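Schema walk-through. Below, the input block comes first and the output block second. Nothing else is stored per chain. Lengths vary across the set, and this one has 490 residues.
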Amino acid sequence: MTSSETSLGNDATDDMNQKEPQEYRQDNNDSLMRVVTQYTEYSVSHANEEDIERLERERDEEMAKERQEPVRSGFLSKRYAQQRKKFFKQYAVIIVVLWVFILSVFSIYWGAMYQRGSRLVNLKILLVVEDGASVDNNDYPVSQALLQVAESPAVKPLLGWTRHNYTDEDWVVNEVWKQKYWGAIYVTSNNVSQQLVQALQNGQDLNTSTLVYGYYETARDLNGMSAYVEPGLLKFAAAFTDIMQQEVYPRLLSQLSAEQFASLQNTTTLSRTPDVTLTDGIPVSDYTVMAPLQVGLIYIIIVTFFQVMWFQRVNQEAAETLKPRSYIIYRIVIAQANFLLISLGYSCVNAAFQIKLNNAWKGGFGVHWMISYLTMSAVGGANENIALICFAVLPPLMGFWLVFFVVCNISATFAPVEVCPEFYRFAYAMPIKNSYELMKVLLFDTYRGHLGRNFGILVAWIALNNILLPFCLFFFSWHMKRKLTKAAKR
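--- output ---
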């Protein structure tokens, strides 16, 4: 390295030391603490830019004088052979790195969707039938038909049909609301088969649509319900109607006398076979909510990543005047203040588009703000810590981290985890998944039994990020000091 390069490194160190008061240096002999305020993201990325440009000009002038010929040449020229070989070597390494990144990180997202159809049975559906009913017992024709549909090859793999003996409707609905089941198909009484047989025998009208009900809640998972649960329930209902028309009714009618059959001619019992009446307990009609529930959560990760870059100069000015310990505390506090104010803007966007925020709690705007703040703090703190490490080691890694973090958070969030491979159970510990569950409670007033876990995981991420931030600041400053010192000694 030339003498000008050595002086460049020494000047960079001297400039930073001159910014530190003499009295302050005497009171703080711990070099590791000092480098926290000497080597910040901004100072490292903007240090001595004018000197670097001047050095490059001097090098070009010296090389031009020595060779007495133009420095630049064509890409395919012999003079560029050595540089061309170096270029292709570096190019190959970069392409391989990108390939490895794509194959590994993108595979996480693709893997969450791999063979989901084979795991639909993990979405449990409560199937309530009459006591004593079975596939072979003709004494309970309605329940018998329900069990036959659940065991049929066309319907069985669609969802996880879980049989249960008769229980009252309130219990069934409550089990689905508590998210123990994704839905339910149930008989409305323990003698629906008897009601149907007697109506046929006596020539009476019977509202057959009240014999079997179905229940689900779209708000539990908008994508999962529309893509997997609701289609499965509709196919079940259609298959049940077919069995009643093609097998059960012909068998029951064949057992009637001519007089009994004649008395049925003008009744709805004969003209309308039993079917499944489906009810959506918590429907979603305003699909504007898809923005804060899905893409909005992804934007939260991205925004918190870029706020780190925007505050580099502000943090640098603070580092020039604060003691190291005060600077570390400042970084922790200012980060939380940033997340609090940015999340306020995010909540204002949702309120501006008239998304109802008061379905679960009065003052829903404030609750939405706090959920957004906790989410931003959880993902933003992780982004800041990793950005410090990546910037010190290899800056392009920051982009890799952002994509990786987004993929890990969303791969098993916007679809039921049950239909993903078991590997994706890690989603339950990710901040975006827990924020997604909290947002659904806020927007649709769904089951609140998991609020403690969801809030707890977000708070745990925030606490961990704040604990790790000082260590990441130390690592960044120590690593950059060592890197600049080595460059100055060359």
